[in-house]
Amino acid sequence: MTDARSAEFVNAVIKAYDVRGVVGTQIDPEFVRDIGASFARLMRAEGAQRVVIGHDMRDSSPALSAAFAEGVLDNGLDAVHIGLASTDQLYFASGSLNCPGAMFTASHNPARYNGIKLCRAGARPVGQDTGLDVIKKEVIEGVSAVDAPREARGNATELDLLADYATYLRGLVTLDDLRPLTIAVDAGNGMGGHTVPEVLGTLANVRIVPLYFELDGTFPNHEANPLDPANLVDLQALVRESGADIGLAFDGDADRCFVVDEHGDPVSPSAVTALVAERELAKEPGAVVIHNLITSHAVPELVGELGGTPVRTRVGHSFIKQEMAATGAVFGGEHSAHYYFRDFWGADSGMLAALHVLAALGEKDRPMSELMASYAKYAASGEINSTVEDAKGSTLAVVSAFEKRTISVDRLDGVTVQLADDAWFNLRASNTEPLLRLNVEARSPEEVDALVTEILSIVRS
Hints:
Blueprint (H helix, E strand, L loop, with lengths): L6 H7 L5 E4 L6 H17 L4 E6 L5 H14 L3 E7 L2 H11 L3 E4 L8 E7 L12 H10 L14 E3 L3 H9 L10 E6 L5 H8 L6 E6 L21 H10 L3 E5 L6 E4 L5 E2 L1 H15 L4 E5 L5 H8 L3 E5 L3 H11 L3 E3 L5 E3 L8 H14 L4 H6 L5 E2 L3 E4 L3 H11 L6 E3 L4 E4 L5 E6 L5 E8 L2 H15 L2
Helix pairs in contact: 2-3, 2-5, 9-10, 9-12
């Protein structure tokens, strides 16, 4: 019997959507073994017979994934190890093998962190209300990690699915007639260094200029978080120096992809969402496309103009995936550069989004900046975080200050205030930190800057 752990400790590590914490003090083999045992019991009750397990390049990942597998095996399910993998490669394994999965990664977090992303068969998400609360309860109560007779112990096998994953993705996008392209790719010493050569390296007429492809979980060059502009600087310089047609940057577990144009200027993930939505709607006119509420309004406007049905959701992959399943949406996008595809079991794949962008660029004899210009209809602030003691009070103060200029307010996720001339802003409190997150969009950068200044003067006063 494993000793019971405090609710405070477990709640800090088993979060709303995944498991994540500091290795040694929060995440250790015994802890993840118990999570594996509980997850196996949960999946066994739903009829599963095996769990597929992958891990990223962090030093702690192999041992932690092995400990998790012990919990799975002791509870009567087989463990299928796919070894080094990107998160979307694990989703491919879960979908193609039709079994639950566990991916060991802390995504873009620093080296001292690790964690687990869990999914059901078909890459369906496991979140707080769909299983993590059950696992959390068992781990807190100290339920024995062995809940099955030893003779019912599962079997462990190894399976290399990298080539199958690459073949499957390339089969979803027409790439036969690409013009010659030079692509600068920053893998950030993360799993993009594992998947990019297999997926993109075999494309005809494509030359890859690699940056930081060496797998290194200490992230010696920069954090594997392209959402922070500071981590795009090296890629931007490489694009300019190499004369590349486009630059791609992947985060640590390579499930998100960020794009820069031939000048090294960042391309908004909302613009990428619009481009991919247009391509998917061309294949299936009238389909549903999901977008979260901080995505540019250019996305639902374009989807509507093309005859599709835009559906707006809260921020977060679990909400997107729920709506993907509920609506049968063909595609979904978030401003954080997560892109979801019905053809990929409703899961997110930055690599598949990259293939769509490359196909669109390679089909036309025009530079990336011109290709994306039509999708960048508005200016945006990006997400700006402020540390606040009273998020609710600060939000109410901002809403009150803008009351006379407000056209509408909704509270789907935080507050979204619609102003005149297509301007709007969203304020959302973090679920885990004393932060208030601001996103602003307007017709011009000057309008955006003015709104940001005004709002932050209230929030940070």
